[in-house]
Amino acid sequence: MRVTDLIRQHQGKPFLSFEFFPPKEADAWPRFFETVDRLKKLDPLFVSVTYGAGGGAQDNTLEIVSGIQQDHGLETISHLTCVQASEDRISNFLAQLTSVGATNVLALRGDPPKGCGDTFVPDNERFRHASDLIEFIKEQHPEICIGVACYPEPHPESPSVKEDVKWARHKLGLADFAITQLFFDNRIYFEFVEKLAAQGVNKPVIPAVLPIPSVQSAKFILGLCGANIPGKLLLALEKADAEGGVEATAEVGRDFAREQIKGLLEGGAPGVHLYTLNRADHCLSVLEGLDL
Ligand SMILES: Cc1cc2nc3c(=O)[nH]c(=O)nc-3n(C[C@H](O)[C@H](O)[C@H](O)COP(=O)(O)OP(=O)(O)OC[C@H]3O[C@@H](n4cnc5c(N)ncnc54)[C@H](O)[C@@H]3O)c2cc1C
Prior knowledge:
The protein is an alpha/beta fold. Helix content is 47%, strand content 13%.
């Protein structure tokens, strides 16, 4: 089912959704699917699976999406990027996706692959931006529900907030919904949604939350996406790490994420998308006690 229909059917009640990344090695898949099943108990409205993010293999995405959608009964969004894209390759991907009953795609430009520098160079003039991919998907599969990425803190390549909002508006004009980049200050999410609404964009913008598991992974992920971490949170994580080690640090990350989710839902966000990092225990304890 289309994600936007699922959201509509939920009738304004807050929902949860989860992002997973496909494990690179097939022998890690059984454990991965156990993680999916454990988090399925929280009744997510849908889940999403990344595509080649951080250097991951693109082909695994299809198989993992197919496994979750068909065998685990969860509505699954496949991420798809312009990296190594060609019309044939994307057509083939979409045909396989729809053949397993998946009807949702998160259309992205992607980042430069590992070892290819910091500047994104399109592999193909046809697919320079996420908006090119959206147009292609719409032409080939009008039945697919298309989501896009958007950035409450502007995308690192955007020269200004105004320019960033301009392209977010353009993409959301073509697509059906958006999922945000991670952020730690809820005010910037609500301000961003207001800026879009002021320009007539009222499609669902689902905020995404990262429950930080460790100082090391926080630094790695922030390095990849360019989001800012509040100094107070960073200090608390570093103090916990120095005094109590990994478990104490994870607790700080969990507590922060739980409060952030509460604030987002109380403030009127339609739901929350959790970057799970494929960690069931960490996510389960973040969501423990939250009344959804
Ligand atoms: C929720 C989410 C999920 C993600 N999942 C993945 C994943 O699975 N795999 C992966 O590799 N990466 C993923 N990413 C990272 C994403 O690929 C990067 O953030 C990338 O740098 C930008 O992707 P985009 O789709 O926003 O690109 P675009 O929309 O193309 O935007 C890139 C830059 O160009 C500007 N821009 C946009 N359209 C135009 C236009 N038509 N003309 C001129 N300028 C324009 C934008 O303002 C922005 O500065 C994800 C990001 C988010 C937020």
